[in-house]
Amino acid sequence: MGSFLSPLSIASVNVAIPAMARALQADAVLVSWLPTIFLLSNVALMLPFGKLADNFGRKRIFALGLCINALASLGAFFSASIEWILFFRFIQGAGSAMSFGTGMAIITSVFPPARRGLPLGLNTAAVYVGLTIAPALGGLVTEIFGWRAVFLLPVPLAAMLVIVIFVFLTGDWRRDRYSPFDWVGTVIFAGWTLALVIGLTGLPQLPNILTLLFAFVLFGVFIWHQSRHAEPLIRVQMFRENRLFSCSLGSALLMYASTYPLTFLLSLYLQYVRGLSPLDSGQVILVQALAMALLAPVAGKLSDRIEPRIIATAGCVSVAIGFALLSRLDFDTDPAYISASLFCIGIGFGLFSAPNHNAVMSAVDAREIGVASATINLARVSGNLIGISLVNMLVHLLLGEQQITPEKYRQLLSTVNVALTLSLCFVSAAALLSAARGRRVNG
Questions:
Q1: Rounded to two decimals, what is the model's pTM?
Q2: Domain 2-171+231-435 classified CATH 1.20.1250.20?
Q3: Per the annotation, which location comes first and is thus the protein's main one (predicted)?
Q4: Above 90 in pLDDT, residue 170?
Q5: CA distance 390 to 263
């Protein structure tokens, strides 16, 4: 249920963005930061909160993250400007990092390797059920109650979950001994995240190029620091020692970079270019997540018996076909064609995600399950962040700091088409990495 909450918070708001932009008279660049800033804090704080959860208890951090998510949602609801909404979205992303980053670690601590595929598949399905319901629910709430109401959607669920967790969930899943916290590594990693997003968003201007170069330097410093720290946030040696682990995470990062901006892009395209309502747009978009939710548990269960590489790579190919179809959007594209393309993407991602997670968890020994879980989530949100940052760059280059009016629809369509072609390139690279990852070693 906690895994359901985060995508609900993201995807429901994405559908309400055009109505929000009109009401607050926000330009295209500020609007494009709405999904980005959530991920910015999510990526920057995922590893630190994972480390704190190991020390102080995963259940405690998980529940605190739900509380922060709910309070930030209330703050966004009452905000009078786009800038304040962006601030509360940043806080909401931090709460999501606390809960989403520890949830999979709790699950993998409970189930043995031979029985891990189905629970991981169900956890993945919960994410996709959130993505399935969110666009239609966000569109319906926006039409009936206005765009502000979408920020209230996570609040009652988060409150209920906190009560259930402390009443019924026994255990806290923490380390036997306290592990010193790496504050220096945390600051370096947060600096890398911020520099990466700012650098990508404003390309090809010189200050942004320099910022992006600085981001690469910070990433190198972070790897160097982690490799020499006695208690690192993440043991970077795992990437060199284990090809199955590194290739699986690499393919995950590329797949999430390709698919995360899709709801945002299609929400703008369907409502501005095609003139659909928020509700109708949500119904078109939900097809993808519905296919994911239906297939993920089945694929996860199969990955306990069939080599995950085979299932996950087939999923990459299906997603690539879907993006190839979507990259041909024009002013008259039938919404049914878009739904069919999204269904193909949903089938592929449903085949990819749970088997890929299973491959990562099978690639490490029991002592490093928590690290592997945090790293999967980090690959996911880092991919999301890279994907949406590149879309922000395209918005900056092709649309600029102006409101999206009918005169700008041609530029908006060009932005969507270029972004979808870029996503197709990411998926193609992910398929190659997935096929090259090697066989799983059980036990």
A1: 0.78
A2: yes
A3: membrane
A4: no
A5: 15
